[in-house]
Amino acid sequence: MSAAEKAQAAQSTRNGWLLSTPALVILTLFAVGPLMIVVVYSFLAPGQYGNIEWAFSLDGWRGILWTKDIFDDTYGLADANVTIFWRSIKLSVLTTLLTFAVGFPTAWFIATRPAKSRALWLFLITIPFWTNLLIRTYAINEVIRNEGLLNTVLIKLGLISEPLRIIYTDTAVFIGMAYVYLPLMVLPLFAAIDRFDMRLLEAAYDLYASRWQVLRRVILPIVKPGIIAGSILVFVPSLGAYVTPRVLGGGKQMMIGNFIDLQFGQGRNWPLGAALSLTLLIIVTVALLIYVKYANRDTAHGH
Amino acid sequence: MATKSFSVAKLPGFTATAVIVFVTLYLPILTLVAYSFNASQSVAIWGGFSWDWYVKAWNNDAVKDATVRSLLIAVCAALISTAVATMAALGTTRRKAFKGQTFIYVMINQPLMVPEIVTAVSLLILFGMIKQATGIQGIGYVIFAHAAFCIPFAYLPIRARLEGMDMTLETAAADLYASPWQTFRHVTLPILLPGVIAGAMLAFVISLDDVVITEFVKSGGQDTLPTYMLGQMRRQLTPEINAISSMLLALTIVLLTAFFLLTRKND
User: Topology with regard to the membrane (chain B) (predicted)?
Assistant: First the structure.
Protein backbone atom coordinates (compact mmCIF):
# COMPACT_ATOMS: atom_id res chain seq x y z
CA MET A 1 0.00 0.00 0.00
CA SER A 2 1.39 3.40 -0.95
CA ALA A 3 1.45 6.31 1.45
CA ALA A 4 -1.37 7.99 -0.45
CA GLU A 5 -3.54 4.88 -0.27
CA LYS A 6 -2.81 4.53 3.43
CA ALA A 7 -3.83 8.14 4.04
CA GLN A 8 -6.99 7.57 2.04
CA ALA A 9 -7.87 4.47 4.07
CA ALA A 10 -7.30 6.37 7.32
CA GLN A 11 -9.47 9.20 6.03
CA SER A 12 -12.21 6.70 5.13
CA THR A 13 -12.14 5.12 8.58
CA ARG A 14 -12.24 8.57 10.19
CA ASN A 15 -15.32 9.46 8.13
CA GLY A 16 -16.92 6.18 9.14
CA TRP A 17 -16.52 7.04 12.81
CA LEU A 18 -17.57 10.68 12.33
CA LEU A 19 -20.77 9.71 10.52
CA SER A 20 -21.62 7.14 13.21
CA THR A 21 -20.96 9.52 16.11
CA PRO A 22 -24.43 11.15 16.46
CA ALA A 23 -26.11 7.71 16.65
CA LEU A 24 -23.49 6.50 19.13
CA VAL A 25 -23.98 9.58 21.33
CA ILE A 26 -27.75 9.10 21.54
CA LEU A 27 -27.37 5.37 22.23
CA THR A 28 -24.72 5.99 24.88
CA LEU A 29 -26.86 8.58 26.67
CA PHE A 30 -30.23 6.84 26.45
CA ALA A 31 -29.56 3.11 26.10
CA VAL A 32 -26.11 1.87 27.16
CA GLY A 33 -25.17 4.52 29.72
CA PRO A 34 -28.29 4.14 31.87
CA LEU A 35 -27.51 0.43 32.24
CA MET A 36 -24.29 1.39 34.05
CA ILE A 37 -26.37 3.37 36.56
CA VAL A 38 -28.51 0.27 37.11
CA VAL A 39 -25.34 -1.68 37.94
CA VAL A 40 -24.36 0.95 40.54
CA TYR A 41 -27.88 1.04 42.00
CA SER A 42 -27.96 -2.73 42.47
CA PHE A 43 -25.10 -2.38 45.01
CA LEU A 44 -26.74 0.35 47.12
CA ALA A 45 -29.16 0.32 50.03
CA PRO A 46 -32.85 1.08 49.49
CA GLY A 47 -34.16 4.48 50.57
CA GLN A 48 -37.08 4.60 52.94
CA TYR A 49 -39.47 6.18 50.42
CA GLY A 50 -38.14 4.60 47.27
CA ASN A 51 -34.96 5.51 45.39
CA ILE A 52 -31.69 4.64 47.18
CA GLU A 53 -29.33 5.59 49.95
CA TRP A 54 -25.68 6.05 49.04
CA ALA A 55 -24.35 3.13 51.07
CA PHE A 56 -22.81 -0.05 49.73
CA SER A 57 -25.00 -3.10 50.19
CA LEU A 58 -25.38 -6.56 48.71
CA ASP A 59 -29.00 -6.83 49.89
CA GLY A 60 -30.31 -6.05 46.40
CA TRP A 61 -28.56 -9.07 44.89
CA ARG A 62 -29.25 -11.27 47.91
CA GLY A 63 -32.93 -10.29 47.73
CA ILE A 64 -33.32 -11.92 44.32
CA LEU A 65 -33.74 -15.35 45.87
CA TRP A 66 -33.25 -14.95 49.61
CA THR A 67 -35.14 -13.15 52.30
CA LYS A 68 -34.03 -12.12 55.75
CA ASP A 69 -35.95 -13.64 58.61
CA ILE A 70 -37.43 -10.79 60.65
CA PHE A 71 -36.78 -12.54 63.98
CA ASP A 72 -33.32 -14.05 63.87
CA ASP A 73 -31.71 -12.28 60.87
CA THR A 74 -30.92 -15.51 59.06
CA TYR A 75 -31.47 -15.83 55.34
CA GLY A 76 -33.99 -18.24 53.86
CA LEU A 77 -35.23 -18.91 50.35
CA ALA A 78 -37.90 -16.38 49.32
CA ASP A 79 -40.75 -18.59 48.16
CA ALA A 80 -42.64 -15.80 46.40
CA ASN A 81 -39.58 -14.91 44.33
CA VAL A 82 -38.87 -18.54 43.45
CA THR A 83 -42.49 -18.89 42.30
CA ILE A 84 -42.16 -15.83 40.05
CA PHE A 85 -38.87 -17.00 38.53
CA TRP A 86 -40.23 -20.50 38.01
CA ARG A 87 -43.42 -19.14 36.41
CA SER A 88 -41.42 -16.86 34.09
CA ILE A 89 -39.15 -19.65 32.91
CA LYS A 90 -41.93 -22.23 32.67
CA LEU A 91 -44.27 -19.96 30.68
CA SER A 92 -41.46 -18.77 28.40
CA VAL A 93 -40.39 -22.34 27.60
CA LEU A 94 -44.00 -23.44 27.02
CA THR A 95 -44.61 -20.40 24.81
CA THR A 96 -41.51 -21.22 22.76
CA LEU A 97 -42.58 -24.86 22.37
CA LEU A 98 -46.17 -24.06 21.41
CA THR A 99 -45.21 -21.34 18.93
CA PHE A 100 -42.75 -23.78 17.34
CA ALA A 101 -45.31 -26.60 17.19
CA VAL A 102 -47.85 -24.47 15.32
CA GLY A 103 -45.40 -22.02 13.72
CA PHE A 104 -43.38 -24.65 11.86
CA PRO A 105 -46.32 -26.03 9.83
CA THR A 106 -47.43 -22.42 9.19
CA ALA A 107 -44.00 -21.35 7.94
CA TRP A 108 -43.82 -24.51 5.82
CA PHE A 109 -47.26 -23.75 4.36
CA ILE A 110 -46.24 -20.19 3.43
CA ALA A 111 -42.92 -21.28 1.92
CA THR A 112 -44.58 -23.89 -0.29
CA ARG A 113 -47.18 -21.49 -1.75
CA PRO A 114 -46.71 -20.40 -5.38
CA ALA A 115 -44.40 -17.35 -5.60
CA LYS A 116 -47.30 -14.98 -6.27
CA SER A 117 -49.51 -15.71 -3.28
CA ARG A 118 -46.53 -16.31 -0.95
CA ALA A 119 -45.97 -12.56 -0.51
CA LEU A 120 -49.59 -12.15 0.56
CA TRP A 121 -49.45 -14.96 3.14
CA LEU A 122 -46.23 -13.50 4.47
CA PHE A 123 -47.86 -10.07 4.68
CA LEU A 124 -50.70 -11.65 6.70
CA ILE A 125 -48.14 -12.83 9.27
CA THR A 126 -46.39 -9.46 9.25
CA ILE A 127 -49.51 -7.38 10.06
CA PRO A 128 -50.00 -8.87 13.54
CA PHE A 129 -46.23 -8.63 14.05
CA TRP A 130 -46.34 -4.86 13.64
CA THR A 131 -49.67 -4.36 15.37
CA ASN A 132 -49.45 -2.81 18.80
CA LEU A 133 -48.71 -5.50 21.39
CA LEU A 134 -51.21 -3.96 23.79
CA ILE A 135 -53.98 -4.12 21.19
CA ARG A 136 -53.23 -7.79 20.49
CA THR A 137 -53.17 -8.56 24.20
CA TYR A 138 -56.51 -6.77 24.59
CA ALA A 139 -57.89 -8.71 21.59
CA ILE A 140 -56.99 -12.07 23.14
CA ASN A 141 -58.41 -10.80 26.45
CA GLU A 142 -61.72 -10.24 24.63
CA VAL A 143 -61.70 -13.87 23.55
CA ILE A 144 -60.80 -15.62 26.82
CA ARG A 145 -62.60 -13.41 29.33
CA ASN A 146 -65.37 -14.99 31.45
CA GLU A 147 -68.00 -13.28 29.27
CA GLY A 148 -65.72 -13.35 26.22
CA LEU A 149 -66.13 -14.82 22.78
CA LEU A 150 -64.87 -18.31 23.67
CA ASN A 151 -67.13 -18.80 26.68
CA THR A 152 -70.15 -17.26 24.93
CA VAL A 153 -69.78 -19.63 21.98
CA LEU A 154 -69.15 -22.70 24.15
CA ILE A 155 -72.17 -21.95 26.36
CA LYS A 156 -74.41 -21.26 23.34
CA LEU A 157 -73.32 -24.59 21.87
CA GLY A 158 -74.21 -26.24 25.16
CA LEU A 159 -70.72 -27.69 25.62
CA ILE A 160 -70.29 -26.04 29.01
CA SER A 161 -72.74 -24.51 31.46
CA GLU A 162 -70.28 -22.45 33.53
CA PRO A 163 -67.74 -20.15 31.83
CA LEU A 164 -64.17 -21.48 31.75
CA ARG A 165 -62.17 -19.36 34.18
CA ILE A 166 -59.07 -18.79 32.10
CA ILE A 167 -58.50 -15.08 32.61
CA TYR A 168 -56.07 -14.06 35.38
CA THR A 169 -54.42 -17.48 35.45
CA ASP A 170 -51.06 -18.78 34.21
CA THR A 171 -52.93 -20.35 31.30
CA ALA A 172 -54.22 -16.93 30.23
CA VAL A 173 -50.70 -15.49 30.25
CA PHE A 174 -49.43 -18.53 28.33
CA ILE A 175 -52.14 -18.27 25.66
CA GLY A 176 -51.59 -14.53 25.40
CA MET A 177 -47.82 -14.79 25.00
CA ALA A 178 -48.10 -17.58 22.42
CA TYR A 179 -50.58 -15.40 20.52
CA VAL A 180 -48.54 -12.19 20.56
CA TYR A 181 -45.12 -13.77 19.92
CA LEU A 182 -46.12 -16.31 17.25
CA PRO A 183 -45.08 -14.10 14.27
CA LEU A 184 -41.58 -13.90 15.79
CA MET A 185 -41.33 -17.68 15.42
CA VAL A 186 -42.90 -17.94 11.96
CA LEU A 187 -40.78 -15.27 10.24
CA PRO A 188 -37.29 -16.78 10.83
CA LEU A 189 -38.64 -20.29 10.23
CA PHE A 190 -40.03 -19.11 6.91
CA ALA A 191 -36.68 -17.56 5.99
CA ALA A 192 -34.95 -20.89 6.64
CA ILE A 193 -37.54 -23.07 4.87
CA ASP A 194 -37.64 -20.67 1.90
CA ARG A 195 -33.97 -21.45 1.20
CA PHE A 196 -34.58 -25.18 1.56
CA ASP A 197 -34.00 -27.12 -1.67
CA MET A 198 -37.18 -29.14 -2.21
CA ARG A 199 -35.27 -31.54 -4.51
CA LEU A 200 -33.76 -33.02 -1.34
CA LEU A 201 -37.24 -34.32 -0.50
CA GLU A 202 -37.53 -36.07 -3.84
CA ALA A 203 -34.14 -37.63 -3.26
CA ALA A 204 -35.17 -38.82 0.21
CA TYR A 205 -38.46 -40.27 -0.99
CA ASP A 206 -36.67 -41.96 -3.89
CA LEU A 207 -34.51 -43.65 -1.29
CA TYR A 208 -37.65 -44.98 0.43
CA ALA A 209 -37.61 -42.61 3.40
CA SER A 210 -40.91 -42.37 5.26
CA ARG A 211 -42.54 -38.94 5.81
CA TRP A 212 -41.44 -38.98 9.44
CA GLN A 213 -37.87 -39.84 8.48
CA VAL A 214 -37.85 -37.04 5.90
CA LEU A 215 -39.03 -34.54 8.50
CA ARG A 216 -36.70 -35.79 11.20
CA ARG A 217 -33.52 -36.52 9.17
CA VAL A 218 -33.71 -34.10 6.24
CA ILE A 219 -35.88 -31.07 6.93
CA LEU A 220 -35.29 -30.33 10.61
CA PRO A 221 -31.45 -30.51 10.50
CA ILE A 222 -31.31 -28.16 7.52
CA VAL A 223 -33.72 -25.55 8.89
CA LYS A 224 -32.12 -25.70 12.37
CA PRO A 225 -30.69 -22.15 12.22
CA GLY A 226 -34.24 -20.88 11.65
CA ILE A 227 -35.52 -22.94 14.57
CA ILE A 228 -32.85 -21.55 16.88
CA ALA A 229 -33.43 -17.97 15.69
CA GLY A 230 -37.20 -18.30 16.13
CA SER A 231 -36.84 -19.85 19.59
CA ILE A 232 -34.54 -17.06 20.76
CA LEU A 233 -36.82 -14.38 19.30
CA VAL A 234 -39.78 -15.84 21.23
CA PHE A 235 -38.01 -16.86 24.43
CA VAL A 236 -36.23 -13.55 25.05
CA PRO A 237 -39.27 -11.23 24.95
CA SER A 238 -41.38 -13.85 26.78
CA LEU A 239 -38.95 -13.90 29.66
CA GLY A 240 -38.99 -10.09 29.87
CA ALA A 241 -42.74 -9.80 29.20
CA TYR A 242 -44.50 -7.02 31.08
CA VAL A 243 -47.68 -5.99 29.28
CA THR A 244 -49.18 -9.44 28.62
CA PRO A 245 -48.86 -10.80 32.19
CA ARG A 246 -50.06 -7.47 33.56
CA VAL A 247 -53.25 -7.42 31.47
CA LEU A 248 -54.01 -11.16 31.33
CA GLY A 249 -52.52 -12.14 34.70
CA GLY A 250 -54.48 -9.43 36.47
CA GLY A 251 -51.55 -8.35 38.67
CA LYS A 252 -51.45 -11.67 40.52
CA GLN A 253 -49.74 -14.01 38.07
CA MET A 254 -46.57 -11.90 38.03
CA MET A 255 -43.58 -12.55 35.83
CA ILE A 256 -40.06 -11.15 36.28
CA GLY A 257 -40.99 -7.97 34.35
CA ASN A 258 -43.89 -7.18 36.69
CA PHE A 259 -41.80 -8.10 39.72
CA ILE A 260 -39.20 -5.53 38.64
CA ASP A 261 -41.96 -2.95 38.19
CA LEU A 262 -43.24 -3.72 41.68
CA GLN A 263 -39.84 -2.94 43.26
CA PHE A 264 -39.89 0.55 41.71
CA GLY A 265 -43.50 1.13 42.75
CA GLN A 266 -45.13 -0.20 45.90
CA GLY A 267 -42.18 -2.42 46.82
CA ARG A 268 -39.89 0.64 47.21
CA ASN A 269 -36.82 -1.50 46.82
CA TRP A 270 -34.92 0.05 43.93
CA PRO A 271 -31.67 -1.89 44.53
CA LEU A 272 -33.59 -5.17 44.35
CA GLY A 273 -35.35 -3.94 41.20
CA ALA A 274 -31.96 -3.05 39.71
CA ALA A 275 -30.48 -6.44 40.62
CA LEU A 276 -33.51 -8.23 39.15
CA SER A 277 -33.19 -6.20 35.93
CA LEU A 278 -29.55 -7.19 35.61
CA THR A 279 -30.37 -10.85 36.30
CA LEU A 280 -32.90 -10.74 33.46
CA LEU A 281 -30.34 -9.03 31.23
CA ILE A 282 -27.72 -11.68 32.04
CA ILE A 283 -30.09 -14.57 31.21
CA VAL A 284 -31.05 -12.90 27.92
CA THR A 285 -27.40 -12.23 27.03
CA VAL A 286 -26.47 -15.86 27.68
CA ALA A 287 -29.34 -16.98 25.43
CA LEU A 288 -28.13 -14.61 22.68
CA LEU A 289 -24.53 -15.81 23.02
CA ILE A 290 -25.66 -19.42 22.64
CA TYR A 291 -27.53 -18.33 19.52
CA VAL A 292 -24.50 -16.55 18.04
CA LYS A 293 -22.33 -19.60 18.74
CA TYR A 294 -24.77 -21.98 17.04
CA ALA A 295 -25.42 -19.63 14.14
CA ASN A 296 -21.68 -19.29 13.46
CA ARG A 297 -21.11 -23.04 13.68
CA ASP A 298 -23.88 -23.68 11.20
CA THR A 299 -22.54 -21.19 8.65
CA ALA A 300 -19.06 -22.67 9.15
CA HIS A 301 -20.52 -26.05 8.13
CA GLY A 302 -21.95 -24.53 5.01
CA HIS A 303 -18.55 -23.52 3.64
CA MET B 1 -39.43 -23.80 -9.88
CA ALA B 2 -40.56 -26.73 -11.95
CA THR B 3 -38.88 -29.10 -9.53
CA LYS B 4 -40.98 -27.79 -6.62
CA SER B 5 -43.57 -30.51 -6.71
CA PHE B 6 -46.42 -30.05 -4.26
CA SER B 7 -47.04 -33.68 -3.50
CA VAL B 8 -43.43 -33.94 -2.33
CA ALA B 9 -43.44 -30.76 -0.25
CA LYS B 10 -46.74 -31.65 1.38
CA LEU B 11 -46.62 -32.93 4.94
CA PRO B 12 -49.63 -34.40 6.70
CA GLY B 13 -51.59 -31.97 8.85
CA PHE B 14 -49.39 -28.99 8.00
CA THR B 15 -51.91 -27.17 5.82
CA ALA B 16 -54.71 -27.72 8.34
CA THR B 17 -52.50 -26.40 11.16
CA ALA B 18 -51.56 -23.35 9.09
CA VAL B 19 -55.19 -22.55 8.33
CA ILE B 20 -56.10 -22.84 12.02
CA VAL B 21 -53.16 -20.57 12.88
CA PHE B 22 -54.26 -17.88 10.44
CA VAL B 23 -57.84 -18.03 11.72
CA THR B 24 -56.66 -17.90 15.35
CA LEU B 25 -54.35 -14.99 14.52
CA TYR B 26 -57.07 -12.86 12.94
CA LEU B 27 -60.23 -13.86 14.79
CA PRO B 28 -59.43 -11.92 18.00
CA ILE B 29 -58.39 -8.82 16.04
CA LEU B 30 -61.51 -8.94 13.85
CA THR B 31 -63.71 -9.46 16.94
CA LEU B 32 -62.10 -6.43 18.54
CA VAL B 33 -62.83 -4.31 15.46
CA ALA B 34 -66.39 -5.67 15.14
CA TYR B 35 -67.22 -4.78 18.75
CA SER B 36 -66.02 -1.21 18.23
CA PHE B 37 -69.26 -0.81 16.22
CA ASN B 38 -71.36 -2.28 19.01
CA ALA B 39 -74.28 -0.08 20.05
CA SER B 40 -74.47 -1.77 23.44
CA GLN B 41 -72.58 -0.43 26.45
CA SER B 42 -71.10 -3.82 27.21
CA VAL B 43 -68.16 -5.33 25.38
CA ALA B 44 -69.84 -8.72 25.62
CA ILE B 45 -73.35 -8.33 24.19
CA TRP B 46 -73.98 -7.26 20.60
CA GLY B 47 -76.56 -4.47 20.45
CA GLY B 48 -76.56 -3.49 16.80
CA PHE B 49 -74.34 -1.32 14.59
CA SER B 50 -73.30 2.15 15.69
CA TRP B 51 -70.55 4.75 15.26
CA ASP B 52 -71.16 6.03 18.79
CA TRP B 53 -67.89 4.82 20.30
CA TYR B 54 -65.86 6.48 17.59
CA VAL B 55 -67.72 9.74 18.20
CA LYS B 56 -67.21 9.31 21.93
CA ALA B 57 -63.49 8.61 21.53
CA TRP B 58 -63.18 11.59 19.19
CA ASN B 59 -64.85 13.89 21.75
CA ASN B 60 -62.84 12.53 24.69
CA ASP B 61 -60.24 15.17 25.58
CA ALA B 62 -57.95 12.65 27.27
CA VAL B 63 -57.90 10.54 24.09
CA LYS B 64 -57.35 13.61 21.92
CA ASP B 65 -54.44 14.79 24.10
CA ALA B 66 -52.89 11.32 24.13
CA THR B 67 -53.23 11.00 20.34
CA VAL B 68 -51.60 14.36 19.66
CA ARG B 69 -48.82 13.53 22.12
CA SER B 70 -48.27 10.07 20.59
CA LEU B 71 -48.00 11.55 17.10
CA LEU B 72 -45.70 14.36 18.25
CA ILE B 73 -43.38 11.90 19.99
CA ALA B 74 -43.42 9.47 17.06
CA VAL B 75 -42.68 12.20 14.49
CA CYS B 76 -39.82 13.66 16.54
CA ALA B 77 -38.38 10.24 17.41
CA ALA B 78 -38.62 9.09 13.78
CA LEU B 79 -36.92 12.27 12.49
CA ILE B 80 -34.08 12.13 15.02
CA SER B 81 -33.47 8.37 14.74
CA THR B 82 -33.66 8.37 10.94
CA ALA B 83 -31.26 11.30 10.64
CA VAL B 84 -28.59 9.72 12.84
CA ALA B 85 -29.26 6.22 11.44
CA THR B 86 -28.78 7.47 7.86
CA MET B 87 -25.44 8.98 8.81
CA ALA B 88 -24.40 5.83 10.65
CA ALA B 89 -25.45 3.66 7.68
CA LEU B 90 -23.35 5.85 5.36
CA GLY B 91 -20.48 5.55 7.81
CA THR B 92 -20.61 1.76 8.16
CA THR B 93 -21.04 0.85 4.48
CA ARG B 94 -19.36 1.92 1.22
CA ARG B 95 -15.90 1.63 2.72
CA LYS B 96 -13.42 -1.06 3.66
CA ALA B 97 -14.31 -2.80 6.90
CA PHE B 98 -12.55 -0.86 9.63
CA LYS B 99 -11.55 -1.55 13.20
CA GLY B 100 -14.40 -0.80 15.56
CA GLN B 101 -17.13 -1.45 13.01
CA THR B 102 -18.38 -4.42 15.03
CA PHE B 103 -18.51 -2.16 18.08
CA ILE B 104 -20.70 0.29 16.16
CA TYR B 105 -23.02 -2.56 15.04
CA VAL B 106 -23.36 -3.86 18.59
CA MET B 107 -24.12 -0.36 19.89
CA ILE B 108 -26.75 0.28 17.21
CA ASN B 109 -28.44 -3.08 17.77
CA GLN B 110 -28.26 -2.84 21.55
CA PRO B 111 -31.92 -1.76 21.96
CA LEU B 112 -32.98 -4.96 20.16
CA MET B 113 -31.09 -7.15 22.62
CA VAL B 114 -31.96 -5.61 25.98
CA PRO B 115 -35.42 -6.44 27.39
CA GLU B 116 -37.66 -3.36 27.26
CA ILE B 117 -38.38 -3.49 30.98
CA VAL B 118 -34.65 -3.21 31.74
CA THR B 119 -34.25 -0.16 29.48
CA ALA B 120 -37.41 1.31 31.00
CA VAL B 121 -36.09 0.95 34.55
CA SER B 122 -32.66 2.32 33.66
CA LEU B 123 -34.20 5.40 32.02
CA LEU B 124 -36.53 5.89 34.99
CA ILE B 125 -33.47 6.09 37.25
CA LEU B 126 -31.45 8.32 34.89
CA PHE B 127 -34.26 10.78 34.17
CA GLY B 128 -35.18 10.88 37.85
CA MET B 129 -31.63 11.97 38.62
CA ILE B 130 -31.60 14.60 35.86
CA LYS B 131 -34.99 15.98 36.87
CA GLN B 132 -33.93 16.24 40.50
CA ALA B 133 -30.63 17.93 39.63
CA THR B 134 -31.88 20.39 37.01
CA GLY B 135 -35.61 20.69 37.57
CA ILE B 136 -36.14 20.41 33.82
CA GLN B 137 -39.46 18.75 32.97
CA GLY B 138 -41.15 18.18 29.65
CA ILE B 139 -41.82 15.72 26.88
CA GLY B 140 -38.19 15.79 25.69
CA TYR B 141 -37.27 12.84 27.93
CA VAL B 142 -39.84 10.59 26.26
CA ILE B 143 -38.79 11.79 22.79
CA PHE B 144 -35.12 10.99 23.34
CA ALA B 145 -35.90 7.64 24.96
CA HIS B 146 -37.95 6.76 21.86
CA ALA B 147 -35.34 8.13 19.44
CA ALA B 148 -32.73 5.80 21.00
CA PHE B 149 -34.69 2.55 20.67
CA CYS B 150 -35.90 3.51 17.17
CA ILE B 151 -32.34 3.80 15.81
CA PRO B 152 -31.86 0.09 14.90
CA PHE B 153 -35.24 -0.03 13.17
CA ALA B 154 -34.37 3.02 11.06
CA TYR B 155 -30.80 1.80 10.45
CA LEU B 156 -31.52 -1.70 9.09
CA PRO B 157 -33.54 -0.81 5.95
CA ILE B 158 -31.19 2.09 5.12
CA ARG B 159 -28.14 -0.12 5.42
CA ALA B 160 -29.82 -2.84 3.32
CA ARG B 161 -30.45 -0.23 0.63
CA LEU B 162 -26.86 1.02 0.72
CA GLU B 163 -25.41 -2.47 0.50
CA GLY B 164 -27.36 -3.16 -2.67
CA MET B 165 -26.17 0.10 -4.21
CA ASP B 166 -23.88 0.34 -7.20
CA MET B 167 -20.78 2.16 -5.94
CA THR B 168 -19.49 2.87 -9.45
CA LEU B 169 -22.16 5.58 -9.78
CA GLU B 170 -20.45 7.65 -7.09
CA THR B 171 -17.05 7.07 -8.67
CA ALA B 172 -18.50 8.15 -12.02
CA ALA B 173 -19.89 11.33 -10.48
CA ALA B 174 -16.52 12.06 -8.87
CA ASP B 175 -14.80 11.45 -12.21
CA LEU B 176 -17.08 14.06 -13.74
CA TYR B 177 -15.78 16.62 -11.19
CA ALA B 178 -18.79 16.52 -8.87
CA SER B 179 -17.89 17.71 -5.37
CA PRO B 180 -18.49 15.16 -2.57
CA TRP B 181 -21.57 17.15 -1.54
CA GLN B 182 -22.90 17.24 -5.13
CA THR B 183 -22.30 13.51 -5.44
CA PHE B 184 -24.22 12.89 -2.23
CA ARG B 185 -27.03 15.32 -3.10
CA HIS B 186 -27.60 14.26 -6.72
CA VAL B 187 -26.46 10.62 -6.81
CA THR B 188 -26.38 8.91 -3.41
CA LEU B 189 -29.40 10.53 -1.76
CA PRO B 190 -31.95 9.90 -4.57
CA ILE B 191 -30.99 6.22 -4.68
CA LEU B 192 -30.98 6.01 -0.90
CA LEU B 193 -34.29 7.82 -0.39
CA PRO B 194 -36.68 4.81 -0.44
CA GLY B 195 -34.56 3.18 2.26
CA VAL B 196 -34.60 6.36 4.34
CA ILE B 197 -38.38 6.70 4.05
CA ALA B 198 -38.85 3.00 4.88
CA GLY B 199 -36.58 3.38 7.93
CA ALA B 200 -38.46 6.49 9.09
CA MET B 201 -41.78 4.67 8.78
CA LEU B 202 -40.60 1.69 10.80
CA ALA B 203 -39.24 4.03 13.46
CA PHE B 204 -42.58 5.88 13.50
CA VAL B 205 -44.60 2.68 13.96
CA ILE B 206 -42.23 1.38 16.66
CA SER B 207 -42.46 4.65 18.59
CA LEU B 208 -46.24 4.78 18.22
CA ASP B 209 -46.55 1.23 19.59
CA ASP B 210 -44.33 1.55 22.62
CA VAL B 211 -45.95 0.90 25.98
CA VAL B 212 -43.35 -0.24 28.48
CA ILE B 213 -40.63 2.40 28.15
CA THR B 214 -43.18 5.25 27.89
CA GLU B 215 -45.05 3.95 30.94
CA PHE B 216 -41.88 4.24 33.04
CA VAL B 217 -40.43 7.43 31.56
CA LYS B 218 -43.51 9.67 31.32
CA SER B 219 -44.40 12.15 34.04
CA GLY B 220 -47.95 12.77 35.24
CA GLY B 221 -50.22 14.03 32.44
CA GLN B 222 -47.91 12.75 29.70
CA ASP B 223 -49.98 9.77 28.62
CA THR B 224 -49.56 8.51 25.08
CA LEU B 225 -52.34 6.54 23.41
CA PRO B 226 -50.93 3.11 24.43
CA THR B 227 -50.26 4.12 28.06
CA TYR B 228 -53.73 5.71 28.24
CA MET B 229 -55.21 2.42 27.02
CA LEU B 230 -53.13 0.42 29.50
CA GLY B 231 -54.47 2.63 32.30
CA GLN B 232 -58.05 2.15 31.09
CA MET B 233 -57.67 -1.63 31.09
CA ARG B 234 -57.73 -1.62 34.87
CA ARG B 235 -61.22 -0.16 34.85
CA GLN B 236 -64.57 -1.26 33.49
CA LEU B 237 -64.11 -1.61 29.76
CA THR B 238 -66.37 -0.03 27.17
CA PRO B 239 -66.17 -0.43 23.38
CA GLU B 240 -64.47 2.97 23.32
CA ILE B 241 -61.17 1.12 23.81
CA ASN B 242 -62.09 -1.03 20.80
CA ALA B 243 -62.71 2.10 18.74
CA ILE B 244 -59.35 3.61 19.71
CA SER B 245 -57.60 0.28 19.02
CA SER B 246 -59.28 -0.02 15.62
CA MET B 247 -58.13 3.45 14.60
CA LEU B 248 -54.56 2.72 15.69
CA LEU B 249 -54.75 -0.60 13.85
CA ALA B 250 -55.93 1.11 10.66
CA LEU B 251 -53.06 3.60 10.85
CA THR B 252 -50.54 0.76 11.30
CA ILE B 253 -51.91 -1.18 8.33
CA VAL B 254 -51.83 1.90 6.07
CA LEU B 255 -48.21 2.63 7.03
CA LEU B 256 -47.16 -1.01 6.59
CA THR B 257 -48.77 -1.34 3.19
CA ALA B 258 -46.96 1.82 2.11
CA PHE B 259 -43.73 0.42 3.55
CA PHE B 260 -44.06 -2.83 1.59
CA LEU B 261 -44.88 -1.09 -1.68
CA LEU B 262 -41.93 1.21 -1.12
CA THR B 263 -39.36 -1.50 -0.40
CA ARG B 264 -40.72 -3.92 -3.01
CA LYS B 265 -40.88 -1.68 -6.10
CA ASN B 266 -37.17 -1.05 -6.01
CA ASP B 267 -36.01 -4.61 -5.48
Answer: Multi-pass membrane protein
